[in-house]
Amino acid sequence: MTDIAAGKQEAHETGLVATISHMRYVLGEDRVTAFASGLFVLIVAAALIGPFIVPYDPLASNTAVALKPPSLSHWFGTDQLGRDVFSRVIVATRLDFFIAIASVALVFLMGGLAGVAAGFFGGWTDRIVGRIADTIMAFPLFVLAMGIVAALGNTVQNIVLATAIVNFPLYARVARAEATVRREAGFVQAARLSGNGEFRILLGHILPNIMPIMIVQMSLTMGYAILNAAGLSFIGLGVRPPMPEWGIMVAEGAAFMVSGEWWIALFPGAALMVAVFCFNLLGDGLRDIVDPQRRT
Amino acid sequence: MLSLVLKRLVLAVPSLIGVVIVTFLLTRALPGDPAAYFAGPAGTKEAIEQIRVKLGLDKPLPVQFVRYVADLSRGDLGTALTTGQPVAADIRTRLPASAELTLIGLILSMSIAVPLGILAATKPGSLIDHTCRVVTTAGVSLPVFFTGLILVYVFYYLLGWAPAPLGRLDIFYSAPPQITGFYLIDSLVAGDREVFVASLKQLILPALTLGIFSLAPIARMTRASMLAVLASDFVRTARASGLAPFTVIVTYAFRNAMLPVVTTLGMVFSFLLGANVLVEKVFAWPGIGSYAVEALIASDFAPVQGFVLTMAIMYVALNLLIDLLYGLIDPRVRLEA
């Protein structure tokens, strides 16, 4: 008995070591993904400790230094109220990152589970989930998100919810396709024969099997989630001034673009772009690791 | 072909029903009491009650739904509080502005993305292939409102080539007599070169912004599907038969590679119609997107509803059109129907 346990432990360890060495190999080969991982660490760091390391209070206005271009004391310049743009950009990372993570997690819970159930059970479950997904797909996604936030109320939570809802079809479809393939797989038959209930098989056997693909899906949609949320706050939904958030900061700086004060909108916009770029690269890289055949 | 058209039309019906149900549910999901909402902050209790009866909000939900559908079928989308006009009329006058912008944007991006994708696929690993890769990856990461602002800064503030980002036409000019609502076409019909040039100048930056935005998915798809087609047997046979490379690529490969590209157009339209809202806000473009944004800020709900519904119906119609286009390009689809 102990032998078997030890053997299992060893096999597990070599599996883990193999995965890590494979990842190291992939990251070494694929400089782009390595670069994106580095950026990702930076973004997470900014989200976690950003508010404690910024040089100025992101909300404190100081009209004496309003609308100053980037300088040594204000790296990204100051806005119309004299607030430090650099501090605001860094502090905003947390909120934008939170919105992206929360909406992606939420859509995984809704779309991923609904899709797995649809693929596994088929029949009515499949038809209902398919109908819901089709109905959402009948709308231009950003427009639907606008409608949802407008109807449910203008809050950050509703932005998260709206972003999750518009991504629902994407997740449901991927999860459904993967679950359909595995529905009658050997390991599912074996689990069924050993007396597992259908729900147990669904959650304990099918779901863990499609997790790698779902995680790739999540990292691929993170970028879109941030863009969607920033777009909504750009048109004045969700986040309210003076709260620092990239979309709303670009909106505040937009009026100054035509009079030449470029730094107010440029830096938050660039931060947004870098974050989305990083998530997209990382998603592509992860997909290459998990599913090399789908590489384009 | 006719049976195909009919079949597709029937397939679009469930989407339309879904769209109407969702917009109805969104109306009822208003936070708080819709009647109090429509009465405005100064509304008295009696006024609220009056509005509740007038809007039919005292009736059960299914009855309200029937009433909603009946209103829709008469083209009644309610009245905008901010303008005091019927929403349907507002949207009708503003729709051409959005349509002109979106179409020019799409034409711009197609005319760059498709050749770029083809060239990248015919010379994999070349400079143009890498350019294509960079453009497609960067393109999907660019927030569309940010691209617009950068263009404004460079071409208006720095270079002074573009006019101020304030609407469809400089205030010195008056709009051409309305025929299609597209200023470019209307001014040509009226023979007014000056207005044509002026409206083109206003249009070019927002259209370019939309174009850059939709460039990435189209170029990416063109490249991928061209690569797949170029590796297939019939292309090899065509090459072995000694056809000119141009004939092989354009007549043989491109026609087959078009199919996935046309399918992607559906998704591109979904993004474009959404991006339209943001671009209209940046360039103060008087289309239905900025109409909805203004209404959103004023908490005026009827225009937002009308806007969401109009956009969704347009999107369903566009998808229908794409399906039909698919049948035109690929004879096999026609046979199946």
Furnish the topology, listing elements before pairings.
The complex is a heterodimer of chains A (296) and B (337).
Chain A: H1 2-29, H2 31-53, H3 85-121, H4 123-137, H5 141-152, H6 156-182, H7 186-193, H8 198-234, H9 246-257, H10 263-290
Helix pairs in contact in A: 1-2, 2-3, 2-10, 3-4, 3-6, 3-8, 3-10, 4-6, 5-6, 6-8, 7-8, 8-9, 8-10, 9-10
Chain B: H1 2-28, H2 34-39, H3 45-55, H4 61-73, H5 87-122, H6 127-141, H7 144-158, H8 183-189, H9 193-230, H10 233-240, H11 245-282, H12 288-297, H13 301-329, H14 331-336
Could you explain how this protein is built, in words?
The complex is a heterodimer of chains A (296) and B (337). With 296 residues, chain A is mainly alpha-helical. Chain A contains ten helices and no strands. In chain A, α2 packs across α3 and α3 runs parallel beside α10. With 337 residues, chain B is mainly alpha-helical. Chain B is 77% helix and 0% strand. Chain B has 14 helices and no strands. The longest helix of chain B is centred in the middle third of the chain and has 38 residues. The radius of gyration of chain B is 24 Å and the shape is globular. The termini of chain B are close together. Chains A and B meet through α4, α5, α8, α9 and α10 of A and α1, α6, α7, α11 and α12 of B.
Largest sheet of chain B: none
**Rg calc of chain B:** 24 Å
Strand content of chain B: under 5%
The ordered H/E elements of chain A are HHHHHHHHHH
Rg of chain A is 23 Å
Helix content of chain B: over 70%
Helical content of chain A stands at over 70%
What class do helices, strands and sheet pairing of chain B give? mainly alpha
Number of helices of chain B: 14
Q: How much is the average pLDDT of chain B?
A: 83
Q: Detail the poorly predicted runs of chain B.
A: none
Portion of residues in beta strands of chain A equals under 5%
> What average pLDDT do the residues of chain A reach?
82
